[in-house]
Design brief:
With about 500 residues, the chain is an alpha/beta fold. Helices cover about 50% and strands about 10% of the residues. It contains 19 helices and 10 strands. The strands form 2 sheets. A 5-stranded parallel beta sheet has the order 2-3-1-4-5, sandwiched between helices. A 5-stranded parallel beta sheet has the order 7-8-6-9-10, sandwiched between helices.
């Protein structure tokens, strides 16, 4: 077990005094719009409930809540394992306390297994992403001896609270105390990150443990406040080392075309094949995530429409991603995408996506340089998590040249049925064509992965583009199903 915080420097204070100090800092956190995540783990029957009560009792109830996680349900297991926890991240100005968490799942996975390693990596990515987004992440583990745990259970039973507080797991842990202690020790040491270290509380005296927890929270909130103030005063200087050697968009042959006759001859058969494959993915419980990006007026939505034309609409959801709402801006930028992921067997199609972070948010200055630069690491991690869960992840980038874009813009303005597709923002973006191309080239080069490839689509001719999207989906879906069959054997 990691060493306990033994300094006891908060013993001289009363719990209420520390709670009031924490509440004062909570008001500053609220004002500075800092999210706070408190993870409280530990032995069952270790006094976690009383510690939680003492942590929150002086806080403004409008700005904190306690989320109790039970073991993942079958419904939750139909998504990547960290999805429920991404959905539950604290918003800006808010303190959220997890009673049990993803660590409950980690402690109950077999060590030295693929599932254990994947979850451990997902946890590290999750906590680092939140920390980098200026979330204060504080983790506590309440440690008790075998004797103390047993006495706590007996006291709860004597008080008549057995049905509420003493579960099968409490007894199981006490019966196999040494085995569980080794499991906890291994998990705690493996996830004791510099940016989110564990604080071990001695549960022998719950009042003293509460004081330690409150004191540590006071210290950590002060550090988080200082980090946020430094950021607002100019933050840290970012030195970028990226030098683009390739320009993938310039390498595309945009003169490729497909005649109307050839298009008509292929379209329906390809749509049927695509629909058949979607059903096979559904039966194999393979989730599918498709991303469509491209320059404005490239024909993304037309390609999506032809791709899913014959698919069962109950199994496919298209998400039209625009600028984040006021609510979405109060969370880490990936939060709104985790909420749109497909369950096993279903398909989610994103017309624009999380790649806005490194395109429009970069070019228009909606994200700071260190934020969009950091996304080059976070986005492949996000997609790897989807792939490791079994998902087929494909990313299409549809490209047209500047002259073709102008023609399509003008056609939209002249057609009453298409005027909704052209906005002042489209014209403003066009004025920054070179800046967008630079950002797009970097994105394509730095985020292409075998498990989540970019498929570049020559879009000047819509017929050619739509057929290429269909053909590549069919090819990739067949390969993914075949690879999955090989793993299942």
């Amino acid at each position: 077990m990691l060493e306990q915080d033994t300094a006891k420097k908060y013993s001289e204070f009363k719990v209420k005094e520390l709670g009031i100090k924490l509440a004062r800092l909570g008001r500053i956190v609220e004002h500075l719009e800092i999210p706070v995540l408190i993870v409280l783990e530990g032995w069952e029957s270790s006094g976690r409930g009383e510690i939680i009560y003492n942590i929150v009792r002086e806080l403004n109830p409008k700005f904190y809540d306690v989320k109790v996680f039970e073991p993942l349900s079958e419904k939750e297991k139909a998504y990547p394992e960290m999805t429920p926890y991404w959905n539950a991240i604290p918003e800006k100005s808010h303190i959220r306390l997890f009673d049990r968490s993803y660590y409950y799942e980690l402690f109950n996975h077999k060590e030295a297994s693929a599932a254990y390693d994947l979850l451990k990596q997902g946890i590290e990515n999750y906590e680092k992403a939140l920390y980098d987004d200026y979330t204060v992440v504080v983790k506590f583990f309440v440690n008790v001896t075998e004797k103390t745990q047993r006495e706590n259970m007996e006291a709860l039973i004597d008080d008549g609270y057995e049905q509420v507080y003493v579960e099968k797991l409490d007894r199981e842990q006490n019966k196999h105390y040494e085995a569980y202690a080794k499991r906890f020790e291994h998990g705690l040491e493996a996830t004791n990150y510099s940016f989110a270290p564990w604080h071990i509380l001695d549960g022998a005296d719950v009042k003293e443990a509460s004081k330690e927890a409150l004191g540590i929270l006071i210290d950590q909130l002060q550090i988080g406040i200082e980090r946020m103030l430094r950021r607002r005063e100019g933050g840290m200087r970012l030195v970028r080392h990226y030098q683009g050697d390739r320009h993938p968009l310039a390498e595309l042959d945009l003169t490729k075309t497909l005649s109307e006759d050839d298009y008509d001859a292929q379209l329906k058969d390809l749509q049927k094949d695509a629909a058949d494959l979607q059903l096979k993915l559904f039966m194999a419980k393979v989730p599918t995530v498709l991303v469509f990006e491209g320059v404005d007026a490239a024909g993304k939505d037309g390609s999506i429409e032809r791709l899913i034309k014959r698919m069962d609409p109950r199994m496919v959801k298209v998400h039209a991603i625009s600028a984040p709402s006021a609510e979405e801006n109060r969370y880490h930028y990936l939060w709104r995408f985790y909420k749109r992921l497909p369950e096993d067997g279903k398909m989610s199609v994103f017309s624009r996506s999380w790649y806005g972070r490194v395109m429009v948010e970069r070019v228009e200055g909606f994200a700071e340089k260190n934020e969009w630069e950091r996304a080059y690491k976070e986005l492949p991690q996000f997609e790897k998590e989807l792939y490791d869960h079994g998902a087929l992840v494909l990313k299409y980038f549809v490209m047209i040249d500047k002259d073709t874009q102008l023609t399509r813009f003008e056609d939209r303005e002249d057609d009453p049925d298409k005027q909704y597709k052209i906005t002042e923002e489209d014209w403003r973006n066009r004025n920054k064509w070179d800046d967008y191309i630079e950002a797009m080239d970097e994105m394509l080069e730095r985020t292409h992965r075998d498990y989540a490839p970019w498929i570049l689509v020559e879009g000047n001719d819509k017929n050619y583009a739509r057929i290429k999207v269909l053909k590549t989906f069919i090819q990739q879906a067949k390969a993914h199903l075949k690879a999955r069959e090989g793993k299942d054997k």
